[in-house]
Amino acid sequence: MTIFRWIMGVWVFGLGGLSVICFAVYMSSGIDLWVDRARKFRRLAWAAALFWFNLEIWGRVLWIIIHW
């Protein structure tokens, strides 16, 4: 499970970082394309974080049920 946490952490923080970079480019240039990209990366980062959280919770629930 530790490998999964590292992989998901890299994905979530990587997508979040891309979102921040795209937003910074938008703020400096004013081109609307970059704010759209920042929103897409932010949504993907949020979806990945929720997926991670969901698997952590349900994995723990299944582990408890199996080892009861």
Short description:
With 68 residues, this protein is mainly α. It has helices at residues 2-29, 32-66. It has one domain.
Description:
The protein is an all-alpha fold and 68 residues long. The protein has one domain (2-66). Helix 1 (2-29) runs antiparallel to helix 2. It has two helices and no strands. The protein is 93% helix and 0% strand. The longest helix is centred in the last third of the chain and has 35 residues, at 32-66.
Structural class, by secondary structure, is mainly alpha
The level of helicity is over 70%
What is the molecular shape? elongated
Q: Distance N terminus to C terminus?
A: 20 Å
Q: What proportion of the residues form beta strands (DSSP E)?
A: under 5%
Number of strands: 0
pLDDT below 50 for ≥5 consecutive residues: which ranges?
none
Question: What is the helix/strand order?
Answer: HH
Characterize the largest beta sheet: strand count, sense, and whether it forms a barrel: none
**Average pLDDT for all residues:** 95
Alpha-carbon Rg, integer: 16 Å
Summarize this structure as a short list of keywords or feature phrases.
single chain; 68 residues
Fold topology:
Elements: H1 2-29, H2 32-66
Helix pairs in contact: 1-2
